[in-house]
Write the structure tokens for this entry.
Amino acid sequence: MEKTIIKVEHIGKKFVLRHQNQERYSTLRDSMAQFVRNIKNPKNFSKGSKEEFWALDDISFDIQQGDRVGIIGRNGAGKSTLLKVLSRIVAPTRGRITIEGRVASLLEVGTGFHPELSGRENIFLNGAILGMSRAEIQSKFDEIVAFAEVERFLDTPVKRYSSGMYVRLAFAVAAHLEPEILIVDEVLAVGDAEFQKKCLGKMKDVAGEGRTVLFVSHNMAAIQNLCDRVIYLKKGKVQEIGATKEVVSSYLRATAETESIDLSERQDRSGNGAIRFSAVNLLDQNHKQIAGFQCGSPGIFRITVNHAPGKQIDQLHIALGIDDEYGQRISALNNEATNQIFNGLKGNESYIDIVIPQIPLSPGNYSFVLYATVNHEIADWIQDAGQFHVESGDFYNSGKSLPTGQGSFYINHSFELHTP
């Protein structure tokens, strides 16, 4: 008989968002004067509107021992909040959670490590937090260090680690100290492709030993490779729970429907708003709008951006990441790589064209992510910003329309025959 190791019953998590009643733009003098008035009359500090936001709303599910469960959904769906509740980092506002066994969590970069301590010291600290004896930790120590590949920096304070090194060590600690439940967020995306593959293999091994894995990711290929069940969250509610293939298909169909949503209305975005993406259009080489690209033909992504009023935009870096139908990143287009950073943009709106002389993608459906920084600070970032389709075409100019199933993209090449 299967043993239920996690039982979640009607949990909800509410946050109170406070909004200050103030002008959008104010001078330093205005802000200082208002601060002095608030000191004289402390009641002023409480002024402003409040809004209740339910990040999780009536969530219920059971997870059995040894299950490998993926948690998917768009940004803002409540995935990370759910993991924090399950990891006991935050308490639910209502509902009940029953967990049997030790939980090791790898959530945001930096969670669980003390920055002033060395890698060696943090390994022992995390083991102690999990309730392990020093002898138990010592028996796993060499495996952890070898897996993380940070031997040279083992006695260096982790505050000096790169984000990739930090994640490698944090995952190695979480996976090797034998928790009954391993919880991993999208943080693995910080690591390189080889390390991500290594982590997925380790999580499979962990589940094979009878332990339970919960994994959040936007990478549907990784979800399908690792998980046997999936929980699909949408706006804080459970949209669907079931077998991986069926639930991932439902999620991808729902993601495709976001294509018709005006980007200016999207709320699931990050950044300071110095610029905001408002639309993306596909154009042909004559700058005529098209429904999709054709393999082998020229194509243009026209990105419309709105500027913050009254400000000149300098050091504008824009990137468009292209994912396949399973969320696997296959390419990224950015003006930093081409050394075409934009400066001196004025007015309320700009149009930026990404010109591709020959579309190399094989026929199929693709999605894209939009990302922008202004003066090296994140201005706007939208996951699942839209989708586009690529039709079959004569990529090699050989008179043949290429079939599907030939890989993700084509490489322009030719053959030469040499005989003795």
The CA atoms of residues 39 and 145 lie 53 Å apart. The two ends are 70 Å apart (CA to CA).
